[in-house]
């Protein structure tokens, strides 16, 4: 073995001097393609977990809770409640509490006039550091306001544009007390005693709570953000609500326990709404899953293409050296010497290529994570030890195994044993049967070349050509099928829960729509085929706080059912698939439902549904897969009609238009109805399709799916082109013989064109069905993971065009070597015969 190693080392040095280009090609292909694959896989992990990274960087609390509410009818005289905050701070498992309050403070003119535009944006004041120390604002321009100064504030870019503000501008601000707000009419004039001046020092927002808002109109708006000194001055007189961020001692694992404790200490009349940071992170992960799936898909295919291309190079290198090994064997080389010949250099090139692939992936790391979180995280090099470490080892081991197998396979002893076996044609008698008798001789020869690997001396990788073509078509077709299914989902709102045309909103999911009056108006409108009134709230279901939509049994309009059926009675409930999994229940089982202060009801689970993203604005509400549909009578009256309206009714009405109804006419008619119901008093409106965050995020992908699909197709096409070039080059001897027998240059070119067309055609026949199956399967898995109706779409026209494009590519890839072969003098190739 020592002698064999010495010989192998000598042969490797000679090979490095004479054939260094072969080793370099192996290193570069492994480094670039492998690095691209590892980089994509690492980016997929980083993308899906990017919201968790953002939470850590911004010091985000574990829970956000609406714990203050201004409602004089139930005795709540201010949104700010200092005593309640002290109680929450002393709860078990609570580590820290920081709060902000909604303030009625707006920009005013020097004379104190309030414009209608100024009444639009919200204003929030930090009580003790929320937005500044906890759940920090991300500043895109300027700086964060000094939390010790009352004369500085921040806002988000959208609000600054709306109010025509710019960084560095000093603004006159005026506040309206809660008592004054009850009698507010028109554009008031704020007295001088209720004014102050402050400077806008920076633009930014808290992306953790605004980045994945479900409303389609969401633009990462935050409103005006004021510092604690000014907030404490106005908290008692001018706060209409309070939101607290609660940091838990042991993190999110105590969420449910602390929520139960909070439910017991909150004053009656305050709707129990809580947002879990862990739930927001999970929601972001679901929203970003399309990006992660695309990156995983791209990385996996890139790795496969790399293994295929480099594997073929290793196989061709081993087979091309069979003659040299036979000479070495004749000169007395042992079996071990012939097997180890050139193996040191090949394994070294593989190892260097694997190391280079890891370095390339690290260089690409500043580009991830993909998606809307990327601008809020620092751009820097980072290493995913799991992906890069394991991936680099897998690449090295897999290719080293190929090199070892081929080194042993092409030793003279094994080659001689193979030569003694009877070689059977790959496709039986197809190449010599009557099926090809009607074709020209160039076509017959081309089909023969495409299907027959040739003689022992000049084996041709026909199987590799077919495999490369099939792989390319699987990649392209699967990508087209997945992309078409994604486009179908985005364009069909019923698939993601919006199983109606319009929603009449009473006002942020809390306003009341007069029941009797709305019934008369909607029933009289011939453009409306059906409608259903619904209420929004949060109830305790088996101890978990769940957003619910209350309706009537057998309602004519409601979310699409995935399994089972809709609720037919007050003792039944329909759950989102994620909520069903959270409760560890199944269809037919029962759950306990209560408001936390009243009677406990036991309901039977009769179905699951794709939930629409609607409910109480700015709070936990229905989302795809999360929430419950049940009888509205299970929601306490005080929660159904929070503002104690003299004409109570549903919080929203789902409206389905009659077939063929004009959307323009329907919208005009619904606006007339809204005016008659005076919905604008509570901020009500007519809403079109409200896209979930998962759907809305597809817009942030831009051209990424197309670019990834194009890159996948390009990688597979390169592998196919390289294989076809090798295919033609290996046939040079056969082509020279054909020219000797009288073939013209045109016939030689036609033979190669037929060869390439048949190989790629067989690959299309195999790859297209597999690609459609893979694309549909991937889509169904993805659709179920985000809880939408799994309805894959197959773009037949586009697939047919891709098949034609593959055939054209095959002929283009084979054209250059075909032209060279047609012009090559036969004597050069046949002089050794």
What features would you describe in this structure?
There is one protein chain. The two termini are 38 Å apart. α2 runs antiparallel to α10. Helix content is 48%, strand content 15%. It has four domains: 1-61 and 268-421, no CATH class; 77-266, no CATH class; 426-493 and 694-833, no CATH class; 499-688, no CATH class. The chain contains 27 helices and 21 strands. With 833 residues, it is of the alpha+beta class. The strands form two sheets. Strands 1, 2, 3, 4, 5, 6, 7, 8, 9, 10 and 11 form an eleven-stranded mixed beta sheet that branches. The relative contact order is 0.12.
Architecture blueprint of SSEs:
Elements: H1 2-18, H2 20-48, H3 50-58, E1 63-69, H4 82-89, E2 94-103, E3 105-107, E4 123-126, E5 138-142, E6 152-155, H5 157-163, E7 170-175, H6 178-181, E8 195-205, H7 207-210, E9 224-226, H8 228-238, E10 239-248, H9 255-265, E11 273-276, H10 277-320, H11 322-330, H12 335-340, H13 343-364, H14 385-409, H15 412-419, H16 441-451, H17 462-491, E12 502-505, H18 515-523, E13 528-541, E14 544-551, E15 561-564, E16 572-575, H19 577-583, E17 590-594, E18 601-609, E19 628-631, H20 637-640, E20 652-657, H21 663-677, E21 685-687, H22 693-696, H23 704-730, H24 732-740, H25 745-785, H26 796-823, H27 826-830
Parallel strand pairs: 4-9, 6-8, 14-19, 16-18
Antiparallel strand pairs: 1-10, 1-11, 2-4, 2-10, 3-7, 5-8, 6-9, 7-8, 12-20, 12-21, 13-14, 13-17, 13-20, 15-18, 16-19, 17-18
């Amino acid at each position: 073995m020592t002698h064999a190693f010495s010989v192998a080392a000598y042969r490797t040095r000679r090979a490095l001097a004479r054939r260094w280009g072969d080793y370099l090609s192996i290193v570069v292909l492994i480094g670039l393609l492998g690095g691209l694959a590892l980089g994509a896989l690492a980016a997929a992990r980083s993308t899906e977990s990017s919201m968790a990274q953002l939470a850590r960087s911004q010091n985000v609390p574990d829970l956000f809770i609406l714990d203050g509410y201004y409602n004089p009818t139930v005795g709540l005289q201010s949104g700010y409640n200092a005593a309640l905050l002290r109680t929450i701070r002393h709860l078990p498992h609570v580590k820290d509490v920081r709060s902000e309050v909604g303030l009625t403070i707006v920009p005013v003119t020097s004379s104190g006039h309030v414009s209608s535009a100024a009444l639009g944006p919200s204003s929030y004041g930090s009580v003790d550091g929320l937005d500044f120390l906890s759940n920090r604002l991300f500043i895109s321009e300027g700086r964060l306001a000094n939390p010790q100064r009352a004369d500085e504030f921040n806002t988000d870019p959208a609000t600054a544009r709306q109010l025509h503000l710019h960084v560095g501008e000093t603004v006159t601000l005026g506040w309206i007390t809660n008592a004054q707000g009850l009698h507010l009419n028109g554009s008031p004039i704020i007295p001088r005693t209720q004014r102050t001046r402050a400077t806008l020092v920076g633009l930014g927002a808290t992306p953790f709570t605004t980045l994945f808002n479900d409303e389609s109109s969401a633009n990462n708006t935050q409103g005006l953000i004021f510092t604690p000194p000014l907030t404490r001055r106005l908290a008692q007189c001018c706060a209409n609500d309070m939101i607290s961020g609660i940091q838990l001692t042991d993190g999110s694992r105590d969420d449910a326990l602390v929520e139960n404790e909070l439910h017991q200490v909150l004053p009656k009349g305050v709707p129990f709404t809580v947002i879990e940071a862990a739930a927001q992170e999970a929601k972001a992960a679901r929203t970003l899953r399309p990006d992660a799936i695309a990156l995983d898909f791209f990385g996996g295919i890139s790795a496969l293409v790399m293994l295929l291309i480099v594997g073929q190079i290793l196989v061709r290198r081993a087979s091309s050296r069979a003659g040299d090994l036979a000479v070495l064997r004749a000169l007395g080389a042992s079996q071990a010497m012939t097997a180890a010949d050139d193996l040191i250099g090949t394994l070294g090139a593989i190892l260097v290529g694997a190391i280079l692939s890891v370095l390339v992936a690290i260089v690409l790391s500043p580009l991830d994570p993909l998606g809307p979180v990327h601008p809020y995280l620092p751009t820097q090099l980072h290493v995913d030890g799991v992906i890069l470490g394991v991936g680099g080892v897998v690449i090295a081991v897999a290719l080293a195994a190929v090199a070892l197998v081929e080194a042993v396979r092409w030793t003279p002893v094994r080659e001689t044993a193979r030569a003694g076996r009877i070689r059977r044609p790959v496709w039986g008698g197809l190449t010599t049967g009557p099926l090809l008798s009607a074709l020209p001789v160039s076509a017959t020869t081309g089909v023969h070349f495409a299907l027959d690997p040739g003689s022992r001396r000049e084996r041709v990788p026909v199987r590799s050509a077919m495999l490369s073509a099939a792989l390319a078509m699987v990649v392209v077709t699967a990508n087209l099928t997945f992309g078409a299914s994604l486009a179908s989902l985005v364009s069909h709102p019923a698939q993601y829960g919006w199983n109606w045309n319009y929603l009449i909103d009473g006002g942020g999911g809390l306003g009341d729509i007069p029941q009797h009056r709305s019934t008369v108006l909607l029933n009289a409108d011939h453009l409306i085929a059906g409608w259903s009134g619904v209420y929004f709230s949060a109830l305790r279901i088996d101890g978990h706080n769940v957003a619910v939509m209350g309706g009537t049994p057998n309602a004519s309009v409601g979310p699409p059912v995935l399994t089972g059926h809709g609720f037919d009675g007050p003792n039944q409930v329909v759950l989102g698939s994620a909520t069903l999994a959270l409760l560890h229940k199944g269809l037919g089982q029962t759950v306990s439902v209560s408001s936390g202060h009243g009677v406990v009801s036991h309901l039977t689970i009769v179905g699951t549904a794709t939930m629409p993203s609607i409910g109480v604005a700015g709070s936990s509400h229905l989302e795809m897969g999360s929430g419950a549909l049940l009888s509205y009578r299970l929601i306490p009256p005080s929660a159904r009609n929070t503002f104690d309206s003299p004409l109570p009714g549903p919080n929203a009405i789902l409206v389905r238009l009659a077939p063929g109804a004009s959307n323009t006419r329907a919208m005009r008619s619904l606006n007339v109805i809204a005016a008659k119901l005076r919905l604008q008093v509570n901020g009500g409106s007519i809403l079109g399709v409200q896209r979930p965050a998962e759907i809305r995020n597809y817009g942030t992908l831009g051209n990424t799916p197309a670019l990834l699909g194009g890159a996948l197709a390009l990688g597979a096409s390169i592998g196919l082109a390289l294989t076809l070039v090798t295919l033609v080059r290996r046939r040079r001897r056969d082509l020279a013989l054909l020219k000797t027998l009288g073939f013209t240059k045109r016939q030689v070119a036609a033979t190669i064109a037929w060869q390439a067309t048949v190989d790629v055609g067989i690959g299309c026949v195999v790859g297209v069905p597999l690609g459609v199956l893979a694309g549909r399967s991937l889509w169904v898995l993805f659709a179920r993971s985000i809880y939408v109706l799994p309805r894959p779409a197959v773009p037949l026209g586009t697939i047919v065009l891709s098949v034609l494009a593959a055939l054209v590519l095959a002929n283009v890839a084979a054209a250059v070597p075909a032209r060279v072969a047609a012009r090559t003098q036969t004597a050069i190739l046949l002089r050794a015969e």
